[in-house]
């Protein structure tokens, strides 16, 4: 049930991600050199760059999987070394597709978003099972819950990974080429869905994509910032309506209702 408090506006424009003169090298090979940028609450940032420009490396640093060789990263105002609140960040890595024989079900994959990284199988509390149902329901994949993840189509898998990323009601979603290998129609539906989530569900996005058309149509024709071979297209939070704080159940239910009304879909 929605309470008054959940509708109260929250402070906007808080920095969610800050990079200060960040560099990264694989062994001796520099990949990222001296990048500084910040993402404010509710911004939508599209990251574009040629193959090998370092986009995935950049995202992996932001989610703490790689350590910068120089510079500083802050998440939600805290230095990344001290940041513990990883549940606030949903991450959908590149090339998620599973081997058809991989034994996990869709439900197990979605639930694993609640636990520490790399823990796919774990005893699940009743409350966690309900969160999982909500996320499956919101992505319209509840009927696929018992199927092996590897038996799903690319588009269905993408919905499952999005449900996994959404299960903790994240404030920040980081997506690495989320529509690779998905047909054009499903891609369009997916972009409608994430635009809707951005505009109505108070989520900040950082997304790598090669889809220039989608990026330009939503975020503008010109990059707001460029660093080496990487360009950043941004829709700022102040272009949107006032922030509204929502809880997971409300947020996912609304998303589902919007999808049922045909406003968004995948
Ligand atoms: N684990 C690794 N060890 C060594 N070099 C790596 C490693 N991962 C990536 N690289 C190299 O770092 C560079 C940047 O890779 P990255 O995957 O970040 O690029 P990208 O911009 O995401 O590329 P794409 O658009 O092809 O996905 C590439 O030259 C790549 O070969």
TrEMBL record:
Gene Ontology MF terms in the entry: ATP binding; ATP hydrolysis activity
Domain ABC transporter residues, every copy:
17-252
Is Transport there in the keyword field? yes
The record, for Gene3D superfamilies, names: P-loop containing nucleotide triphosphate hydrolases
Keywords attached to this Swiss-Prot or TrEMBL record, sorted alphabetically, are:
ATP-binding, Nucleotide-binding, Transport
What domain of life does the native source organism fall in?
A: Bacteria
User: Which SMART domains does UniProt cross-reference here?
Assistant: AAA
Q: What family does this belong to?
A: Belongs to the ABC transporter superfamily.
Name assigned to this protein: ABC transporter
Q: Which organism is it from?
A: Paenibacillus montanisoli
What taxonomic ancestry is recorded? Bacteria, Bacillati, Bacillota, Bacilli, Bacillales
């Amino acid at each position: 049930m929605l309470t008054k408090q959940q509708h109260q506006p929250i402070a906007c424009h808080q920095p969610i991600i800050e990079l200060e003169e960040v560099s990264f090298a694989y062994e001796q090979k520099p990949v990222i050199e001296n990048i500084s940028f910040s993402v404010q609450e509710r911004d939508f940032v599209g990251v574009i760059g040629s193959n090998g420009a370092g986009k995935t490396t950049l995202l992996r640093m932001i989610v703490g999987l790689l350590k910068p060789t120089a510079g500083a990263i802050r998440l939600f105002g805290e230095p990344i070394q001290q940041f513990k609140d990883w549940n606030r960040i949903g991450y959908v890595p590149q090339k998620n597709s599973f081997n058809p024989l991989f034994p996990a079900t869709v439900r197990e994959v979605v639930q694993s978003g609640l636990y520490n990284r790399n823990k796919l199988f774990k005893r699940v509390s009743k409350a966690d099972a309900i969160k999982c149902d909500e996320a499956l329901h919101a992505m319209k994949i509840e009927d696929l819950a018992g199927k092996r993840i590897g038996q799903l189509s690319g588009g269905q898998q993408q919905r499952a990974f999005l449900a996994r990323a959404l299960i903790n009601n994240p404030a920040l979603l980081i997506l690495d080429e989320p529509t690779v290998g998905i047909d054009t129609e499903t891609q369009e539906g997916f972009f409608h869905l994430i635009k809707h989530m951005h505009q109505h569900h108070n989520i900040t996005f950082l997304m790598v994509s090669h889809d220039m058309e989608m990026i330009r149509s939503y975020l503008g024709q010109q990059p707001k910032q460029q660093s080496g071979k990487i360009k950043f297209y941004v829709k700022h939070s102040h272009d949107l309506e006032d922030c509204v704080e929502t809880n997971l159940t409300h947020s996912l239910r609304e998303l589902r209702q919007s999808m049922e009304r045909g406003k968004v879909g995948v």
